[in-house]
Amino acid sequence: xxxxxxxxxIANRLAxxxxxxxxxxxxxxxxTFHAILQGxxxxxxxxxxxxxxxxxxxxxxxxxxxxALEQRVADLEAxxxxxxxxxNAA
Length: 90
Prior knowledge:
Blueprint: H1 4-16, H2 23-43, H3 49-89
Helix pairs in contact: 1-2
């Protein structure tokens, strides 16, 4: 689900921020950062960009249909009121 290169890049940047005096720990810290990031991101309930875009399109289509149905209901209500008014006037 997650791009391993992105996790590696973040872990590398974190390890790169370590002061020069700790260079002997850099490789171990990089592995630790990588494991922590992978574990934390794995627990999140995330979707891919593609899945998100599909659901976004479905939502837009549903919203459009809902608006059309709302308009139809309003038109039908108006017709019913007009018919009712016409019958009461007669």
